[in-house]
Amino acid sequence: MNVDAKLSDRPVFVTGADGFVGSHLTERLVAAGANVHVFVRATSSGELNNIRHLTEDLTVHRGDLRDQHSVREALTALEPYDDSLVFHLGAQAHVGESWDRPYETVDSNVNGTMNLLQAIVDLDLDIAKFDTAGTSEEYGNVKEEMADKHDIGDDGRVLLSERSPVNPTSIYATSKLAADFLTMNYHDAYGLPTVTTRMFNNYGPRQNPRYITGTIITQALERDIVELGNLTPKRDMCFVEDGVRGHMHVALEGTPGEQYVYGYGENISMRDWTNLILDVGAEHGYWERPEIVQAEDRYRPGDSDVEELLVGYEKLYNETGWEPEVSWEEGVQRTIDWYANNKPAWYGRVDWR
Description:
The chain is of the alpha/beta class. It has one domain: 3-Layer(aba) Sandwich (Rossmann fold), CATH 3.40.50. 39% of the residues lie in helices and 17% in strands. The radius of gyration is 20 Å and the shape is globular.
């Protein structure tokens, strides 16, 4: 499917557009010639960090997902259209920070989602698709009593799909699961053409350096140790450009009322992921090989860590033809290169100094 051709002049509305995944999605939508409207959090400076270079090619609406009035006012921009796409990526999206800022996390992720959906109903907007971005964290760990409800691969690993039971183990994951259910509630009650997507562990340029990939890279660039927490969990790491294509495919070809999950289709322990990043960086001359150090204060609280995540994306592939295109080695090299060449964009945000 040529997604760009289907997006030319198409009205689209993106929440979280100045964030990590949102900025990459916005960039791709602008490149496709879409009529792009973005909703970003209002600040005193009005500064845009990741999409400033696109401002002449889109319409910026400032507000806060938690504020019903600003959400409604922004969405009035879609009133003249009957084929708009809404990509809802705005959220407090950090697992660790959800424990430090629990009320903000729930307010932004749950009430923010409801404010968007209810405004669309109240304004009687005729939209083509509303995509709520979920997270693989919603699956959590496999409960023993639910083990027989999971798909097991030939190698004995749990393969997570749209049919898999959920078991969120953090405030962040629980808030995103609630947002998923709200999205489906508005489909069932009002017939809104909603879909939910669960991307598995995106990484890439512009990501907050407090996430695992960014903290490994930024520490390796700046010092001779890389200090991390638990390295046994396994994650399905998907490069952000592949993740963005997934959103676009679902929005254009997904079935309303359905959920779609996707990722790289293979997982890796965080120790092996760390070694992969450090090896690629050393190979390309970004650093001498740093030492890996584990620190107790970097572990997640109690038993809240998720042991293993691995996706089966057959549904999305069968319906739209989507599959990942960027290998781990290529994605890691491109990510390292961005951090190495954009130190002012991340240096003040790290959590390891």
